[in-house]
Amino acid sequence: MEEKQPVLELENVSVAYDSEAGMVQAVNNVSLKVYENTIVGLIGESGSGKSTLGNTIMHLMKNNAVLTSCTIKVMGQDIYRLNKKDLRKFRWSQMSMVFQSAMNALNPVLTIEDQILDVFFSHDKNISRKEANRRAVELMDIVSIDSVHLKSYPHELSGGMRQRIVIAIAIALDPKLVIMDEPTTALDVVVQRSILDKIKEIQKVKKFAILFISHDFSLVTELASKVAIMYAGRFIEITDSHSLSQSERHHPYTQGLIKAIPHLTSEDVTIEGIPGNPPNLVELPSGCAYHPRCPHAFDLCMRERPETRLVENREIECHLYETVEK
Question: Disulfide: which of 41, 140, 238, 310 matches 227 by Cβ 3.0-4.6 Å?
Answer without folding.
Answer: 41
